[in-house]
Amino acid sequence: MPELPEVETVRRALMPVLEGRRIIRAVARRPDLRFPLPDGFGQRLTGQRVLAVRRRAKFLLIELEDGSVLISHLGMSGSYRIYPDPSPSPEKHEHIILRTDQDTEVRYNDPRRFGFMDLIDGAALDQYVMLKNLGPEPLGDGFNAEILSARLKGRQTPIKSALLDQSVVAGLGNIYVSEALFRAGISPKRTAASVAGRRASRLVPAIKSILNEAIDAGGASISDHRQPTGELGYFQHQFAVYGRQGQACPGCDCDLARTRGIAKITQAGRSTFYCSRAQR
DNA sequence: CACACAACCTGTCAGC
DNA sequence: TGCTGACAGGTTGTGT
């Protein structure tokens, strides 16, 4: 689930629960996620007031009153749940529990443990290894056709792979790359270099609109993923190509008896979905 | 430098 | 019903 729209949905759900609140107890129920948790993780969080819940690309940044920042990445299977008091006993994969001074619990659940958390000095945030090479925020003013073109120029990798590269643009994942390329009418097989220029000016608004619509829908709930409030995200119902191999793409007059409809291919080890007729 | 691929770990689902 | 293998939203590290 967690690409930019899903992380943004999480941020918006956590904001009213955490901002301005004090963490009265923080517990790590295991010593590691993808990486070991920092020393004294629970103690360093306990007693601190949360100043803000921010997002950079797919990273949640929870700013604390002592100037440190809790960095949280959801990996493939991470999710947050909010429990009002009294909260039930923790489930198997609820690894991190934050209890606030309103007796609300915020729990991080991550079966695969590809996600991670870290606690660092806010002054060092820009140099943090996982953040320092990120490209522009796709929804920011700094992301436009000129910027994207410059980053695609000369690259022979397929545009699909280039858009997954977080140093090109930060926040897209496997689902929204396929969706954005479909909306822009661009083949995922095309080289990144060949998209620089005119095609990039079609791609940028496609990326922005897809992401905005997904955020408005509360993200996409793939399989068992939910918003922290427990609600399902609805954007999955609006996928044009992702997971729809063999079907006709929206607005396409393909005769499925004669064509194979939406194709599923593998690029750089990841699934790509596209329509060879609507995308060139 | 640019790119492809394996690895990290667990759950789910299709097929037998 | 149970087993096996393939596959899944991401990112890093290694090898070519």
Describe, in plain words, how this protein is organized in 3D.
This protein has 280 residues and is of the alpha+beta class. It has two domains: 4-127, MutM-like, N-terminal (N-terminal domain of MutM-like DNA repair proteins, Alpha-Beta Barrel), CATH 3.20.190; 145-274, Helicase, Ruva Protein, domain 3. It is built from seven helices and ten strands. It has a four-stranded antiparallel β-sheet. α1 packs across α7 (198-216). The structure holds a DNA duplex (16 and 16 nucleotides).
Tell me briefly what this model is.
It is built from seven helices and ten strands. With 280 residues, the chain is of the alpha+beta class. The strands form three sheets. Strands 1-6-7-5 form a four-stranded antiparallel sheet. A four-stranded antiparallel sheet has the order 2-3-4-8, covered by helices on one side.
The radius of gyration is 20 Å
> What is the count of helical runs?
7
Q: What share of residues is helical?
A: 10-25%
CATH class of the largest domain: Mainly Alpha
First and last CA, distance: 28 Å
Unreliable stretches (pLDDT < 50, length at least 5) are none
Q: Which geometry do the CA atoms define?
A: globular
Q: What kind of sheet is the major sheet? A: 4 strands, antiparallel
Residues in β-strands, percent: 15-25%
Strand order of the largest sheet: 1-6-7-5
Mean pLDDT: 91
Order of H and E elements: HEHEEEEEEEHHHHHEE
Which structural class matches the secondary elements? alpha+beta
CATH structural architecture of the largest domain: Orthogonal Bundle
> How many domains?
2
CATH topology term of the largest domain: Helicase, Ruva Protein, domain 3
β-strand number: 10
